[in-house]
């Protein structure tokens, strides 16, 4: 189907829905003026939770209070207790693997298949690849997790969905903040924060600095980051906010190891890491604006952003190159939400459009001791994306909503080869898709819900997959449909979040080896299915003293990702993620303000690292403990122990088509570590 026809079909469907609503609707009167302490452009965590739980599918929300009571160093620290999410660092904060429901497992570096957003605006590159290292966990007020096509409100119809990191504002976090963390591996982390309100204006700014020598050889890191925003309320129910973030990241990179090396001497790295001075240095600057206007029955939001990132990335060994990239991304977004009465029934509608793109000037040089040698390649990689989406929730009963949604996406990837001495490898590819969603949500009791949905998603390949030697003109986009059922809620001292899903994928981006050359290819059919269980339980109250409590929280994920009667890999497991993953914490909290308790991170069986299913990681269980004290008056402190039994384990792997015992695919996790911190707000 042509792009024009696809666009017309989608627009006609959405306009027809809107026109029908105009004929029979009756407006609901709602206030257009929020409380003075609430930002319009950035809802507080309580309001965000109310909104996200309208989703008929797997979602979650993590507040900063759940993260700041211990070391907050990486995205993993935010997402540890979210079922269905596999987040593991390779070393330090660098290049974490982030996979939701098996998204992007074939990516050995960076991520794809999940859209990373900051305040609803994409941080992922325009071609769909991305990093998490520019996210500072200390500069996040709360985090929204939308699994799969449940991220439709942001236009994201991807297998992994979207993760939205939301900034503090002067209205949500007024006053001053000083935080200091320190601990193992020469770790040091400092944060200053300042926010306030002055009439119609509010502001928040927080610079942070972190340093670590790293657990492994050649993993020194220095991160300098700045995040801030300023908001202006220019009328009743109208606000505009400007966001600014900057990062200066310097990270030494060790080599991956064989399994035997990783488990016997996890601190080592290959001599090539020193010879090639392998590292990843990033300088980034990002600006955005968000304007929201409340109407009598809904809200209109318009966003725009521009970002620039410079990357200097020496690599050595099998890929002896220096990557020297200069990238710009930008775009605009508009979203309209409305609540009306249709034939006496409540109806909520969302319509939106996203237009964003980017240009990457990518050069590769021969690596000479970590410096640029001879130029080996030069290209312009241009991405353009158009997305239009709509969703409506019609309440057939006051507690039962039927939900229908539709997203259309139009993407282009243009590769311009500027280094022609070895031939012209230029190409241009276009990808179009329509992704519907149907579902239902039943609020069967106060603070308790059941939901079900069937949704479609698509993922155009990023340039890293498209430019694989010899196959760039044959890679198709990855498509999937997912069936999901779930429950979430709270009753007294028990809260739960449970979902079961099955996704049928076509053209999943994977690896194959032909004539000893490994390339990306489209698997014919694959299946991703799983169970996600999370929650907390206050088991005891007034246990040893009046007002104290003993609480258990945890997240369990069951993953079953496999090829489906593939011509080469039959029904093999898809490599890269554990089959079972459990994270749990037992905590005692005293009324006077102190708390303490153990936690465990458990992978009870190893998982494959290759499509041929010849090589696995090993099982592990990590014991940790956390304690802290709230002195009152804004002063808090904590101590956070990790891997206290000093277990050698594999935290993160690359994947391959076929692996052997000599394959260097394994990244060992940190050994025993203890961190402490103190925080003061005034």
Plain-language structure description:
With 682 residues, the chain is mostly beta strands. The protein has a single domain, classed as TonB-dependent receptor, beta-barrel domain (Maltoporin, Chain A). It is built from six helices and 32 strands. It has helices at residues 3-24, 45-52, 75-79, 259-264, 271-275, 463-466, and strands at 25-27, 59-63, 85-88, 97-100, 115-118, 121-122, 142-146, 162-166, 175-183, 187-198, 201-212, 221-235, 238-252, 279-294, 298-314, 321-342, 345-368, 371-397, 400-417, 427-445, 448-459, 478-491, 494-514, 517-541, 549-563, 580-589, 594-603, 620-632, 635-642, 650-653, 666-668, 673-681. It has a 22-stranded antiparallel β-barrel. The chain has a five-stranded mixed beta sheet with strand order 2-7-8-5-6, with helices on one face. The longest helix has 22 residues, at 3-24. The chain starts with a helix and ends with a strand. Mean pLDDT is 91; it is low at 1-32.
SSE diagram, text form:
Blueprint: H1 3-24, E1 25-27, H2 45-52, E2 59-63, H3 75-79, E3 85-88, E4 97-100, E5 115-118, E6 121-122, E7 142-146, E8 162-166, E9 175-183, E10 187-198, E11 201-212, E12 221-235, E13 238-252, H4 259-264, H5 271-275, E14 279-294, E15 298-314, E16 321-342, E17 345-368, E18 371-397, E19 400-417, E20 427-445, E21 448-459, H6 463-466, E22 478-491, E23 494-514, E24 517-541, E25 549-563, E26 580-589, E27 594-603, E28 620-632, E29 635-642, E30 650-653, E31 666-668, E32 673-681
């Amino acid at each position: 189907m042509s792009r024009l026809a696809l666009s017309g079909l989608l627009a006609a469907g959405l306009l027809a829905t809107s026109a029908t609503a105009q004929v029979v609707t009756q407006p609901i009167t709602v206030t257009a003026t929020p409380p003075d302490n609430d930002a319009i452009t950035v809802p507080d965590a309580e309001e965000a939770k109310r909104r996200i739980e309208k989703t008929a599918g797997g979602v979650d929300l993590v507040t900063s209070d759940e993260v700041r009571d211990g070391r907050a160093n990486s995205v993993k620290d935010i997402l540890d207790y979210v079922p269905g999410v596999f987040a593991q660092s390779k070393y330090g904060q660098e290049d974490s693997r982030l996979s939701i429901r098996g998204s992007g497992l074939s990516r050995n570096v960076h991520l794809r298949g999940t859209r990373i957003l900051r305040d609803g605006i994409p941080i992922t590159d325009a071609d769909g690849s991305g990093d998490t290292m520019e996210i500072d966990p200390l500069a996040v007020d709360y985090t929204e997790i939308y699994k799969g096509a449940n991220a439709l409100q942001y236009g994201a119809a991807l297998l992994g969905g979207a993760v939205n990191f939301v900034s503090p504002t002067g209205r949500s976090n007024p006053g001053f903040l000083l935080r200091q963390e320190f601990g193992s591996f020469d770790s040091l982390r400092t944060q200053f924060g300042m926010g306030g309100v002055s009439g119609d204006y509010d502001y928040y700014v927080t610079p942070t600095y972190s340093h670590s020598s790293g657990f492994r050889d050649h993993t020194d890191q220095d991160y300098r980051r700045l995040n801030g925003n300023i908001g202006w309320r220019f009328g009743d129910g109208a606000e505009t906010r400007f966001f600014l973030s900057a990062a200066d990241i310097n990270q030494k990179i060790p080599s991956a190891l064989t399994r035997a090396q990783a488990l016997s001497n996890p601190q080592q790295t290959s001599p090539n890491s020193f010879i090639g001075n392998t590292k990843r240095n990033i300088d980034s600057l990002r600006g955005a604006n968000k304007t929201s206007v409340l109407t009598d029955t809904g809200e209109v939001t318009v966003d725009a952003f521009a970002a620039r990132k410079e990357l200097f990335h020496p690599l050595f060994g099998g890929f002896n190159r220096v990557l020297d990239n200069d990238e710009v991304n930008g775009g605009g977004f508009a979203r309209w939400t409305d609540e009306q009465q249709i034939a006496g029934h409540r109806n909520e509608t969302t319509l939106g459009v996203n237009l964003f793109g980017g240009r990457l000037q990518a050069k590769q040089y021969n690596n000479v001791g970590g410096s640029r040698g001879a130029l080996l390649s030069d290209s312009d990689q241009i991405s353009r994306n158009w997305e239009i989406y709509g969703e409506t929730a019609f309440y057939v009963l006051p507690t039962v909503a039927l939900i229908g949604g539709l997203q259309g996406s139009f993407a282009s990837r243009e590769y311009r080869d500027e280094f022609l001495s070895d031939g012209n490898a230029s190409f241009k590819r276009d990808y179009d898709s329509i992704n519907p969603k149907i579902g239902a949500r039943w609020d069967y009791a106060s603070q308790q819900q059941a939901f079900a949905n069937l949704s479609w998603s698509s993922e155009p390949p990023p340039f890293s997959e498209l430019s694989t030697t010899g196959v760039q003109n044959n890679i198709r986009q990855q498509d999937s449909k997912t069936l999901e059922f779930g429950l979430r809620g709270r009753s007294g001292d028990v809260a739960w979040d449970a979902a079961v899903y099955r996704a049928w994928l076509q053209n999943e981006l994977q690896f194959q080896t032909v004539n000893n050359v490994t390339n990306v290819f489209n698997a014919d059919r694959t299946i991703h299915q799983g169970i996600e269980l999370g929650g907390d339980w206050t088991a005891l109250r007034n246990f040893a003293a009046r007002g104290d409590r003993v609480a258990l929280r945890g997240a369990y994920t069951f993953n079953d990702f496999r090829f489906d009667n593939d011509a080469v890999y039959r029904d093999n497991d898809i490599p890269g993620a554990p089959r079972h993953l459990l994270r749990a914490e037992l905590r005692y909290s005293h009324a006077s303000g102190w708390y303490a308790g153990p936690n465990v991170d458990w992978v009870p069986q190893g998982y494959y690292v290759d499509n041929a299913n010849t090589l696995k990681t090993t099982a592990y269980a990590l014991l940790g403990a956390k304690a802290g004290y709230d002195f009152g008056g804004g002063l808090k402190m904590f101590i956070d122990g990790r891997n206290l039994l000093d277990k050698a384990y594999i935290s993160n792997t690359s994947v391959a088509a076929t692996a052997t015992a000599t394959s260097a695919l394994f990244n060992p996790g940190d050994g025993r570590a203890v961190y402490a911190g103190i925080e003061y707000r005034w």
